[in-house]
Amino acid sequence: VQLQASGGGLVQTGGSLRLSCAASGRTYAGMGWFRQAPGNEREFVAAIGWSSGRPYYADSVKGRFTISRDNAKSTVYLQMNSLKPEDTALYYCAAERYYSGNYRQSSVYDYWGQGTLVTVSS
User: Fold this and answer.
1) Any idea which of 27-31, 55-59, 116-120 has the lowest mean pLDDT?
2) Residue 30 CA, distance from chain mean position
């Protein structure tokens, strides 16, 4: 099982980035994105049901970020628009083997990617 995250970088306020997370090894019930800024705890950003495609978002990113998945490529994406300096963080993708319904909790995810850094300059 492997999750490979990519797409981070440096962008100005108001800019956009698209993160990708390629999954391998098995099928998953759902996948999510979390982020962790220096000195802060890891926080939920977005999640998606692998079969349903139903998205879930943190209030802080709703309307700006879009999560999607490509089943054929076993890849989940996070399109981030209207980026703000407070979005600066290390972004992690995660996958859960079985549906828990608690997609906002990092503890329900069984596998984690290595993280990709997003820096938004003011």
Assistant:
1) 27-31
2) 11
